[in-house]
Amino acid sequence: MLKKGLFIVIDGIDGCGSTTHCKLLSDYLKERKFKVKLTKEPTDSMIGILSRRMLRGKNLSPLIDALLFSADRQQHTKEIQKHLNDGYVVICDRYLESTIAYQSSQGLSIDWLLELNKDVIKPNLTFILDIDPKLALARKHLDNPEKFEKVEFLTKVRQVYIDRKNKNNYLLLNSNRNIVDVQTTIRIYVDLKINNNPNIIVK
User: Fold this and answer.
1) Which end of the chain is more exposed for a tag (fewer CB within 10 A), N or C?
2) From CA 165, how far away is CA 3, in angstroms rounded?
3) Torsion sign across C-alpha atoms 58, 154, 41, 114
4) CA 12 to CA 18: how far, in whole Å?
């Protein structure tokens, strides 16, 4: 039996629509009879839950943020690899680039963050959903915003995503557009990748 799957990440600033598009892509691939694992970061592990709780801590050190998110990812990457070995298409809502973009925008070195995460699995496809931070936060209708949910900070984060896209040849999609248009574009790229990968198992 063939043992290699496909690892897809959809990333971007808060409010970019990554969760929505991960779910829509998962449903689309399941309808086509692919084995799909939908996952996210932070995960639902104990470390992931702690990481999400810490997002409410306004004065937490960026170093602590980076270590928590990266520790969560170390465990997560083992689970991702297991599913890939079983021929799944793994779709992840946020991944390494979130740590790079958010924690470097807090002043940490990108080189250090990459070294911290050097052993994690590299995605086959990474989509960056690009959106104006004001529009992104307006979509969230925030009553009690987390510490990262500020226009000034997200503007910095957005620029890091763009810089990283240019350096790594990620797919940057305009998420100011309506959901159908964005999802259609995502599916086109995913279908192309699948058609060029004979190792992905169909149920």
Assistant:
1) N
2) 29
3) negative
4) 7
Report yes or no on 116 lying in a domain. Answer: yes
Which of 40-44, 130-134, 156-160, 191-195 shows the lowest per-residue confidence on average (mean pLDDT)? 191-195
In contact, 43 and 161? CB cutoff 8 Å = no
User: What residues have CB less than 8 Å from 119, skipping those under 6 apart?
Assistant: 74, 77
For the chain, what is the radius of gyration of the CA atoms?
17
Question: Smallest Cα–Cα separation from 140: which of 10, 44, 40, 16?
Answer: 16
Give a yes or no: residue 201 inside a domain. Answer: no
Model pLDDT for residues 19-63, shown as the tens digit of each residue: 999 999 999 999 999 999 999 999 999 999 888 887 766 667 899
What is the pLDDT at residue 142? Answer: 55
Q: What does the alpha-carbon distance between residue 15 and residue 132 come to, in Å, rounded to a whole number?
A: 10
Q: Residue 200 falls within a domain, yes or no?
A: no
Q: Tell me what pLDDT residue 20 has.
A: 97
Share of the chain residues as helix, strand and coil, in percent rounded to the nearest 5: 50, 15, 35
Q: Which domain holds residue 92?
A: 6-195
Round to whole Å and give the CA distance between 23 and 36. Answer: 11
Q: Phi, psi (5° rounding) for residue 36?
A: -125, 135
